[in-house]
Amino acid sequence: MSETKKVSIDKLKPNPDNPRIIKDDKFKKLVQSIKDFPEMLKLRPIVVDKDMVVLGGNMRLRALKDAGVKEVEVIIADSLTDDQKREFIIKDNVGFGEWNWETLANEWDSDKLDEWGLTVNNFNTDSINLDDFFEESNEQKEQKNKIVLEYTDEEFELVNEEFKKHSGSKEQIVYKLLGL
């Protein structure tokens, strides 16, 4: 059974397993939307488990704190199994924000993610070892690794597509993608 009530924001605990983040300008927009439309919080309460760990609304919780909100409406979903909680976290976040791909890859079952509506590419950044392709200084290697780590989700999708459609060696593909 679930109940809705207003609680102090300090009682809520961010979910350490949440694989979804909103950052930079998008996060600022979320904070501003809370300030501009606080009534939304009653219409879309944060969902927590019986221990007050957030299942739905982790980024909203962070934004609420930044906006200076002291109390918030929550729905306490106290009858969900652990599997249902995990499913809820994904289904609640499928549409917006940015995914922490490392957390997804390490903490989540890709078949379940796909079943819940999140398409996860089979591209594994760990499979690219730039050291295998370049005989350069450590500083140059660090810079190239930094470039790979700074790819956006859209850029990773392009990398994945390049690997699928090219018959060249990995070295040729990596050189092309890094503009070398």
How would you summarize what this structure contains?
This protein has 180 residues and is an alpha+beta fold. It is 47% helix and 13% strand.
Strand content: 5-15%
Secondary-structure-derived class: alpha+beta
CATH topology of the largest domain: Conserved hypothetical protein from pyrococcus furiosus pfu- 392566-001, ParB domain
Assigned CATH architecture of the largest domain: Alpha-Beta Complex
Instruction: Please count the beta strands (DSSP E, at least 2 residues each).
Output: 6
Mean pLDDT: 76
CATH C-level label of the largest domain = Alpha Beta
Radius of gyration: 20 Å
Strand order of the largest sheet: 1-5-3-4
Oligomerization state of this entry? Answer: single chain
The biggest beta sheet, please? 4 strands, mixed
Show unreliable segments. none
